[in-house]
Write a structure and sequence with these properties.
- The complex is a heterodimer of chains A (168) and B (320).
- Chain A is mainly alpha-helical and 168 residues long.
- Chain A contains 6 helices and no strands.
- Chain A is globular, with a radius of gyration of 15 Å.
- Chain B contains 8 helices and 12 strands.
- In chain B, strand 1 and strand 2 form a beta hairpin.
- A 6-stranded antiparallel barrel of chain B has the order 1-2-5-4-3-12.
- The chains are: A mainly alpha (168), B alpha+beta (320).
- At the A-B interface, helix 1, helix 3, helix 4, helix 5 and helix 6 of A face helix 1, helix 2 and strand 1 of B.
Chain lengths: 168, 320
Amino acid sequence: MASPRYAAALWLLTAVLLQLGVVNRLHVPYGDPNLALVTVLSLALIAGPGFGMGAGFAAGLLGDLLGTHTLGRLALVWTVVGYAVGVLGAGLSGRGRNPVPPMLYVGVGSLFASLGYVALGVVSGEAHAPVGQLLQSSLAMAGYNLLLTPFLYPALRALLRHLEPSSL
Amino acid sequence: MNRDSQRLRLALVVLLLISFTLITLDYRSSKSGGAFSGPRHVASTVFGPIQRGFSSVVSPIGTFFSDVVHAGRDGKKVRSLQAQIDKLQSELRGNADVTRDRGELAGLIALSGDNQYTIVPARAVALGDLSGFDSAATLNVGSRDGIKLDMTVISAKGLVGRVVAVSPLSCTVALIIDPNLNVGSRLQSDAHVGITSGHGASSDLTFSPTDPSVRPKVGDVIETFGTVTYAANVPIGVVTAVGPTAGKTTVTAQVKPYVDFTALNVVGVVIPKERTATAQSTAPTPTVTATVTKTVTATPTPTGTSAGTPTPTPQTTATR
């Protein structure tokens, strides 16, 4: 189990760096896709809720430490979403090559992740951009993440299966 | 299986409790500097060099993809740009590029407020954060380059933001479009002061004069007035609309920032000179202070690296 874990961690780290250094610079209309979140949710679907929540917490905490918002906000939301998508999508990795179910899980999971993050900020009274703008970015991120899933999810699944065929 | 799911739920609860604790502690201490500046410092110390290296490798890729993404939108501009290129190329032959570079640098120096400040040039190696909602940038300069917390960051066009975290090789800048940022500013025309606030990446800034009777006009320039945090006289943006705020007696002006935050690349961090130097520059009579300046600045020069002139005459010290 060790080598898939390292591979997943490395993948996640690369996703974080690509997100901050490249994707956020592209200024895609309406909002930015989120490679790290797609990775977390794909891991949850492939390897289960434990993996998903661990990856969500780790990536979220890293995002909190490198960001300027309150520490723990992203970690909390991504842990919950990683766990939930892992539980709800259990057994998905065994099923064939239909790309639609993982797309939906990642899309809906991303939407809840963004909305949860925004809600935490609004509830805790942090200064925030107009709510309409936040909703628009959340929807855009969910949509873009959904579209990225057919590319990232199979690649990640193939990698992890190649490393540890028995456990996945 | 049941035991497994129990352990899983326990782990979930533990992680959630950790997150809640972090949020509570960080939120409560945010007014007094933050309890987690240590861990944040460690994270940016580790990630600063990685991001620098990563950025130098992938920034051409990013530029390429950005060009692809915006190809449709920018398609119309191609013809007019071609005309500009032709014009510029003819100018290039006359060494106009040198003059232009000098002009831009002169602009940066002029922004730095008559030599009260030095500017450390930097490049934005990362934008935004993982949440997708932070308005921040990571620069490739850090405490080793003399960067400290709360320093002002500018570009040749105007105010960019404020340094909110520093590690040896990188620093994080909160951009002025961040909803948490309020900049002490004034109308350039009549020096009425107010607060300029950010409202997120796709909204303009707003300027609220502290005197409610003041009505900014469309086209007015907003600049910093110089506080402990922000350097003085840095242009922020131009007023595009003026209207009363709902439920408030004050007037609020929409301000379009001069800096294009979607194309942030080369910026400068403003480093204030020593207290003594700032005090002197405000002194109105240069003839009297010239002798004083010499004796005062003579002592710190050996420690400073800028001791390029070993024997400063009174004239050179006075002009600095």
